[in-house]
Amino acid sequence: MLYKELCEIYEELEKNPSRLAKTTILSNFLKKLKHEKNKEIIYLIQGKAFPDYSEKEFGISEQLCIKALSKASGISSKEIVNKWRKIGDLGKVAEEVMTKKKQNTLFSHKLTTEKVLDNLKKLPELIGKGTVDKKMSLISELLTSSSGIEAKYIIRILLSDLRIGVASGTIRDAIVESCLEKNEENTKAVQESYDKANDLALVFEKACKGIGSLNETELIPGHPLKVMLALKAESIQDGFERVGKPAVFEYKYDGFRMLINKDEKGKVKIFTRRLDEVTKQFPDVVKYIEENIDAKTFILDSEAVGYDPKTKRYKPFQDISQRIRRKYDIEKLEKELPVEINVFDVLYYNGKSLLNEPFQKRTELLRKIIKNKKYRIQSSHQLITDDEKKAEEFYKQALKDNQEGVMIKNLTAPYKPGARVGYMLKLKPAENEFDLVITGAEYGTGKRAGTLSSFTLSCYDKANDKFLEIGKASTGLKEKEEEGLSYTELTNLLKHLITHETGREVIVKPKIVVRIIYQNIQRSPTYESGFALRFPRITHLRPDRTPKDVATLKEVIEEYKRMELKIEY
DNA sequence: ATTGTCTGCCCC
DNA sequence: ATTCTGC
DNA sequence: GCAGAATGGGCAGACAAT
Questions:
Q1: What is the pLDDT of residues A144-180, one digit of tens each?
Q2: Which entry of A3, A15, A464, A472 is 20 to 30 Å from A145 by CA?
Q3: pLDDT tens, A524-550?
């Protein structure tokens, strides 16, 4: 297929915001794709070159795209970045500079989807010295034989960000429309096939053959499965209203998600939330599984939490994050930063999928098959109740035990891989606040192109009469002026305070004070204050405060210590 | 050999 | 992770 | 209510530059 044809579809999708319209455009395209041999083109619709479960990486992002664009167009990197600041989309910058270039050179239009896929697939294979240059050639080859529009999408796909408003849900609906009769049963069949396969090209091929083929897709232990995600609850009462009574309450642990598999051959495999395999990084966990779970095959959903091996004190996420991508010194880390596995669901057991079984059944089974061993592996701490007071106590206990909060679950619900569902909720305590002064900012991208969109925050170091950076915030502001403090309003306030501009970043005079809410204070290697905020959000302006009225470094340190103490128990 | 920059459908 | 928005 | 698109801190690893 000509790449140009695909790009026309991208353009159509980008233009039409309605999901129904997108589905129609896509399904018409898929009807054509049915007759193509290479169904991998569907990966290009997803903005990638491999199926979801693949761990292959391009190793290319913004900086290298800027370099590649500069090379292919002959325009300096600095100028490319300037355009990027104004346009907010490296894809569109590519379109502009390559269109100009094309006016001067003759070129025959022959770029095919196969060629694009070919070059993209070569990127992850390159390793060692000289890699970057080789990658640059592969990209340049594509860019120089591209029209402006084609260049736009070459760049966007390299950034894994197509910006066409299409994700798996829309593609699922389009597959149904193009291959099957549009009804609930068929949609469910496609979704469930995708949940198990994590490969849309494969699902599309099956859908072409009919619902029978889709329903043959099996859940196989040892193959990655997407995890189910939770929505936020406002309170215990809100939780009960949304999941019903009685409800299941479980501790919400501050660690990382682990999908633990034991396959037909008895091999244990561990996957993260994003389907990366991390078995090698956690030999300790493999051992716990082998020793404490007596079953032939299974898939478990769990959270790994770190603790201090001496004091047995639970550690915050930041401390164990070293383990997740580790390749070297794994044995050493295993001893220094042990993890405890808290299992909260079982999705497959001894040859049978449990995805459609009610949660009550799954959680009861789970408690039968795990031999609880504290600091190694255990079923997550749980309370099933219809009593708000008891639930409230359980929640308080979770916080006292140094956990993030509780999960609230419906007893009858199935397990929906990859979905954020209303019958699994998370509840965390109210957050902390600081007033901080804005000392810098960065121009945004996409829908926030041309306005400042990320704001550098500083506290005040009274002793040295200096402002010290303590992090950035970008969320919490409104897109529309009428709704509250908006990006444009804040941009206008900061505009005439700008003292320096480099690329997309600006430095501003410390004048504008904002109220920030955050979840935690962490030690920081990147900010000059030595601290950073976890999950910072801007709520509103504090025009009544002068820059020197903001939180002082001393106050930040005190607050940090106060939080540390809470961890001690 | 050391330091700096960049990347990650990263983890949260 | 959090948040906002359009559908 | 959901999906999509913006963006946060911080980590290890890989490669380039010095």
A1: 999 999 999 999 999 999 999 999 999 999 999 999 9
A2: A15
A3: 999 999 999 999 999 999 999 999 999
pTM summary value: 0.95
Same domain, A454 and A391: no
Question: Does A385 lie in the same domain as A277?
Answer: yes
**Residue A87 approaches strand C within 7 Å at CB:** no
- Would you say residue A330 lies in a domain? yes
**A119 phi, psi to nearest 5 deg:** -65, -40
Are the C-beta atoms of A392 and A385 separated by less than 8 Å? no
Q: At what angle do helices A62-73 and A77-87 cross, to 10 degrees?
A: 120
Tokens 């470094």, residue? A553
Looking at the fold, whether A461 and A541 belong to one and the same domain comes out as: yes
Distance A165 CA to D16 C1' (A): 36
Is residue A173 domain-resident?
no
Indicate the number of domains in chain A: 2
The strand ranges marked E within A55-179 are none
pLDDT at A385: 97
With respect to residue A83, please indicate whether it lies within any of the assigned structural domains. Answer: no
Strand C close to A212 by CB, under 7 A: no
Q: Which nucleotide is nearest to A276 (CA to C1')?
A: B10
Question: Which domain does A254 fall in, by range?
Answer: 235-427
- Which residue stretches of chain A have pLDDT < 50? 567-569
Which of A427, A454, A469 is the last residue before a domain boundary?
A: A427
Residues A386 and A480 in one domain: no
Q: According to the model, what pLDDT value does residue A568 have?
A: 39
Percent of chain A's residues with pLDDT above 90: 93
State the Cα–Cα distance between residues A291 and A287, nearest whole angstrom.
Answer: 6
Q: Give, in Å, how far the C1' of D14 lies from the CA of A130.
A: 12
Per-residue pLDDT at A231: 94
Catalytic residue (one of A22, A135, A152, A252): A252
Which run of H or of E encompasses A254?
A: none
